[in-house]
Design goal:
The protein has 7 helices and 7 strands; from the N terminus they run ββααβαβααβααββ. The protein is an alpha/beta fold. This is O-fucosyltransferase family protein.
């Protein structure tokens, strides 16, 4: 959930299946890195507790935005999402991931996007461990073959 004074943007499940953001990323690190740019809360404030996946699945809602273009401009969000947030204090955008175009963004948004992608998003320890194990196996496996300039990992049998 991203808050800007009295308006909220709640980022619920970003992934297909039962995984949530906190299953994949270190939420405390995310919040800490971005605390000087945006206020982030882990749970919806009580006044927005009605805003659930079930609520949006049961009918057309004024706070639900399903028409975000795949590569929406920052201006599109200002014209279409900001008024909903100003009217209701909350907006549900689904699907949300990869909906903001990467071209022609105002410099402040580019800086925030870079900060999120390269500093704030950090995997939880168990995912980092799996990555370290995979890198170690790929790097130090004796079963490597050279093929067309690329390395292919083969299991030793």
């Amino acid at each position: 959930m991203l808050r800007n004074q009295d308006t909220c943007l709640y980022l619920r499940s970003l992934y297909i299946g039962k995984l949530s953001f906190s299953d994949i990323f270190d939420v405390d690190h995310f919040i800490n890195v971005l605390r000087d740019k945006v206020s982030i809360v882990k749970e919806l404030p009580r006044q927005y507790s009605w805003s659930t996946r079930e609520y949006y699945a049961s009918g057309i809602r004024a706070t639900r935005i399903k028409t975000a273009p795949v590569h929406a401009s920052a201006d599109w969000y200002l014209r279409n999402v900001l008024p909903v947030m100003q009217s209701y204090g909350i907006a549900a955008i689904s699907p949300f991931s990869h909906r903001l175009a990467f071209d022609k963004l105002p410099i402040k948004i580019q800086h925030l996007r870079r900060k999120v992608n390269f500093k704030a998003l950090a995997f939880v320890p168990r995912i980092r461990l799996i990555g370290e194990i995979l890198v170690h196996r790929l790097r130090y496996s004796s079963g490597k073959l050279q093929a067309s300039g690329s390395e292919v990992l083969c299991e030793n049998k």
